[in-house]
Amino acid sequence: KLQFLYFIGEMLNRHPSRSSGVPRVDSRASSSNAELKVAEDEIAELQARVKKLQTTLRTTKQNLEEELEQRDDELGAALTEIEELKASIMADKMAALSQQDDEFAQRMEELTKRRREVDAKLKTMTTQ
Question: How far is CA 21 from CA 11, 13, 24, in A?
Answer without folding.
Answer: 12, 9, 9
